[in-house]
Design brief:
Radius of gyration: 30 Å
Number of helices: 19
Number of domains: 3
Largest sheet: 6 strands, mixed
Strand content: 15-25%
Strand order of the largest sheet: 8-13-12-11-9-10
CATH topology of the largest domain: Rossmann fold
Number of strands: 21
CATH superfamily of the largest domain: Methylglyoxal synthase-like domain
Distance between the termini: 57 Å
Length: 515
């Protein structure tokens, strides 16, 4: 049975019904500071922890429950004769239930420009210790660390008078998860504030909280959940800060494509639009106005755009919304904002998912990929050798308009699955080859998609050409300039193809594989 319970909570949501249920069972309730005051105001008998231990709260409340009379009362194994002997000798009063939740460090970390001193004061010590002590001794003690657990605990106590060992074990596992996540948020937040980039650590600590259950994963037979990283510096990074304004629930595949669309479209400074399918762009364009950028992105490959995800890097106005609405079936539209009139137009499409993500919410984070038995972690792929560091490897030099298109095509190629080939003309992708196992096949596929538009276009390749066959196919299709990393042992032969065709070839010295 539960004879004595310790209640010490920062979040007091739903606490009173639980405390009343315990009081009805004649359970002695021990408590601290503000929690004790609340219980007393509600007419619930309570013993202050300082009275229980004979030692006052000290250091502005930093030390309240860190006392042998508290942790001895929680950690004593009721099946161990030696423990029971010490309990009797030291006159400890066993605690059978611990109800505790932690200082709101994560909420403090969400505040923009929160002072480090404020964050430090929100690091809970005693609460974490209580969770771990009670969870370790789950054979004898129950640990309740979240308000959403209260209803189940109340129901079981009122029905049986005790928590079953199965329930105590489940609550212990959840308690260790709570303390581990709490520490991971502290680690991630403080590491984010470190003034210099830290070296790769021997251990990686990651904590994410469930945002929502998803209907299913990539396929209907796969269950799935959406987790999000904790906020840092006032930002809930990437899709974690998304607001869905309309449409059906987002699916697993929607989220993958939305992430790809956001990362790509925000890489452009001009008004830009992309259409994404299966995490690959099938259309992309820049223009002087957002509506024109979308019109040209969609026209890049209208067949593949069916059922696609649209990404835009400017708030959507009514003109752009009308063009989108007239473009047939699309799954989602994501942008940094939507004008009221634009929302009215787009909401006519009942199932169209409309998602708002502020541009500033895309903060740098690790790129993680799971492999059997572990994780691979890398820095995000960014362009470090910009156009100013590219080398013209041919006799012919690019015109100003070709250079503009080469930069555009190279930016798009960074977001295309390897082997990636992008054909572009007037800052519009006219043909994209992706995910094929040979580069010349990617060239052929991009040319096929472009059709007559290949003539006069430029080509970007995310990796070097291992043989001259890719550039040869490009020249035959009428490509007028090429940009690629270079670095192949066959570079001289590859460059010779461009020189023979009298077209410029630029070498970036940097590749952008995407697996």
């Amino acid at each position: 049975m539960i004879r004595r319970a310790l209640i010490s909570v920062s979040d007091k949501t739903g606490l009173i019904p639980l405390a009343r249920a315990l009081a009805r069972r004649k359970v002695e309730i021990l408590s601290t500071g503000g929690t004790a005051k609340l219980l007393r105001e509600q007419g619930i008998p309570v013993t202050e922890i300082a009275q229980f231990t004979g030692f006052p709260e000290i250091l502005s409340g930093r030390v309240k429950t860190l006392h042998p009379k508290v942790h001895g009362a929680i950690l004593a194994d009721r099946r161990n004769r030696d423990h029971l002997g010490q309990v009797k000798k030291l006159r400890l009063k066993p605690i059978d239930l611990v109800v505790v939740n932690l200082y709101p460090f994560e909420a403090a970390a969400r505040r923009k420009n929160a002072p480090l001193t404020d964050l430090i004061e929100q690091i809970d010590i005693g609460g974490v210790a209580l969770i771990r002590s009670a969870a370790k001794n789950f054979k004898s003690v129950g640990i309740v660390c979240r308000p959403d657990q209260y209803a189940g605990v109340i129901a079981e106590i009122e029905k049986k008078g005790v928590l079953s060992e199965e329930s105590r074990f489940r609550l212990a596992v959840e308690g260790f998860s709570e303390s581990a996540y709490y520490d991971s948020v502290i680690h991630q937040t403080l590491a984010h504030r470190f003034p210099k980039k830290l070296p790769w650590p021997d251990r990686i600590v990651l904590g994410a909280s469930k945002r929502q259950d998803l209907r299913y994963g990539e396929n209907p037979h796969q269950s799935a959940v959406w987790y999000q990283w904790p906020a840092a510096g006032g930002l809930q990074g990437g899709l974690g800060g998304a607001r869905q304004l309309h449409g059906k629930e987002l699916s697993f595949n929607n989220l993958l494509d939305l992430d790809a669309a956001l990362k790509m479209v925000f890489a452009f400074r001009k008004p830009a639009a992309v259409v994404v399918k299966h995490s690959n762009p099938c259309g992309a364009a820049c223009a002087g106005a957002l509506a024109e950028a979308f019109r040209r992105a969609f026209a890049g490959d209208p067949l593949s755009a069916f059922g696609g995800i649209v990404g835009l890097n400017r708030p959507v106005d009514a003109v752009t919304a009308r063009v989108i609405a007239a473009s047939g079936f699309l799954e989602c539209v994501v942008a940094p904002g939507f004008r009221p009139e634009a929302l009215k137009i787009l909401r006519v499409k009942k199932n169209l998912r409309i998602v708002e993500v502020a541009r500033g919410q895309l903060r740098e984070c690790l790129d993680l990929k799971q492999v059997g038995g572990g994780l691979l972690a890398q820095q995000p792929d960014e362009i470090r050798k910009g156009p100013g560091r590219w080398r013209v490897a041919t006799k012919a030099r690019p015109t100003a308009s070709q250079k503009k298109d080469l930069i555009f095509a190279w930016t798009v190629a960074r977001f295309v699955k390897s082997n990636a080939i992008v054909l572009a003309k007037d800052e519009q992708a006219v043909g994209i080859g992706m995910g094929l196992t040979s580069r010349v096949d990617s060239v052929a596929f991009a040319i096929k998609k472009a059709g007559p538009r290949a003539r006069g276009a430029v080509l970007a390749s995310d990796g070097f050409f291992p043989k001259p066959d890719g550039p040869q196919a490009a020249v035959r299709a009428g490509i007028r300039a090429i940009v690629q990393p270079g670095g192949s042992i066959q570079d001289p032969e590859v460059i010779k193809v461009a020189n023979k065709a009298r077209i410029p070839m630029l070498l970036t010295g940097e590749r952008h594989f995407k697996h």
